[in-house]
Amino acid sequence: MPLRLIKFALSRKHPEPRMFTRHERLKPSYDVVIIGAGGHGCAAAYYLARDHGISDVAILEQGYLGGGNTGRNTTIIRSNYLTPEGVQFYDESVRLWQDLSQDFDLNVFYSTRGHFTLAHTDAAMRTMRWRAEVNRHFGVASEAIDSQAVREAIPMMDITCGGHAPVVGALYHAPGAIARHDAVAWGYARGADRRGVEIHQNTQVLAIELEDHGCGGRVAGVLTNRGRIATRKVLCAVAGYTPRLLAMVGLRSPIYVHPLQAMVSEPLKPWLDPIIVSGSLHVYVSQSARGELVMGASLDPYELHSTRSTLDFAEALAAHMLELFPFLSDVKINRQWAGMADMTPDFAPIMGLTPVHGFYLDSGWGTWGFKATPVCGKTMSHTVAKDAAHPLIGAFAFDRFARYALTGEKGAASVGH
Amino acid sequence: MKLMTCPINGPRLISEFAYGGEMREMPDPVAVSDAAWADYVFNRNGVPGVKKEWWCHTPSGVWFIAERDTTTDTIQRTYLYQPGARVRAERAA
Fold it and tell me: What is the C-alpha to C-alpha distance for residues A126 and A34, in angstroms, rounded to an integer?
């Protein structure tokens, strides 16, 4: 209907509702300011408004909605973690994921695929059995399977990996899934917007104003490039920018930032149903609804605050992909990109209250944050509303390092870092 | 960053080097409090900027210091570590 399209373009009153309300200016004060309009920030705003009745909320985003790590990950959702705290937390997230499309009235393309973590050594197989035991204890579907079962489930894979890294077994996690990342951020943002939350894009936080600096201080306001906001509560959900925000309030943390790269192939006919992960080969791969192979690997080897891509990464990942799937040698790479991962020493997040009153942290999401989007929103909104950490995030507290009480999750990180 | 200059071996491909983290001063483990020790063990300066870092030229095993901008990924200087250099610099100042 070209004529209708021209009329629509020229019309001042666009007859179809836009996804979000545009706000020309910031209000002088808000009950809660959320920094970062990624999945986590938008989810927290959504649950604050829906479950806690707090809708005088501004989400400040220096770029565009969902343009950070929410839009840069490989969208794998799973709960087959290693620690009891991690398993319970991610399992709650998977439950929330399964209802999201209904919740939003928006299709997030949640697709349950099954998730295989390949083991190439006896030591890796031991970790798989350990994870399966912990998972099953908490009611999460997970089992260690042998190489014959892997062969039957993934017949197109070279089980010997060219003869030098034969697969000896795997951890099979039936609920493993993928989802459309933009839809998640937009679904949460629209839900929050409809409940009165203001989303301000292109709004950069320059400073956080405190009464009494550092430990024991209290949040008083936020200074942005579009003016000052008075607020008593700030939720920081900014992934790779976390150290810069923490510096604004005078806090030190173990977070270090390395880039994490990923890439997709040209679209292919559907041939790969499950999600395949190999820690030893540093590969994780799934096939998207568009037919592209979405591939990731381990972190870049040194600190960098940039989202540049490297040929080294593409070459190394392609080489490992060909060890698993030699028939892909003619397939082309379509796109490659990077995100800034906020890593922690124990591969668990840093969430909840901080020594600065009114400054709440949802960080340390390194390479494992997308799957946790719904449960982070749930638990952080509770934490902000009640000014007390949600019971599910106790093991992820900011002060656990000072107490030498780490939550060792590295054995369940998707690939060996 | 494609090349790095090893103080012993000259410019080499970046793939020959391994990153050893930011250079930090270790407090006296006997004298220090538990809190200060945890700060040393776990906490990092995650804010971008020009940092002094340990790097290793792996084929020859040479450890050295690189001053690198962690936003632009450009190396400003590389040199061998000299114990006590910091103390001497402070005295001179």
Answer: 42
What is the ipTM, given to two decimal places? 0.90
Span A346-358, pLDDT tens digits? 999 999 999 999 9
Do A308 and B71 lie within an 8 Å CB cutoff? Answer: no
For residue A54, give the 3-state DSSP assignment: coil
Asked if A242's CB is within 8 angstroms of B44's CB, the reply is no
Q: What is the CATH number of the domain that holds B29?
A: 3.30.2270.10
Beta strands in A216-279 (DSSP E): 218-224, 227-230, 233-236, 256-265, 275-278
Give the Cα separation of A329 and A322 in Å (integer).
7
Task: Give me the pLDDT at residue A416, please.
Answer: 54
Counted across chains A and B, CB pairs separated by less than 8 A come out at 56
How much is the pLDDT for A1?
61
Domains annotated for chain A, with CATH where assigned, are 25-72+182-255+346-412 (3.50.50.60), 112-175+256-343 (3.30.9.10)
Q: Please, are residues A281 and A165 in contact by the beta-carbon 8 Å criterion? A: yes
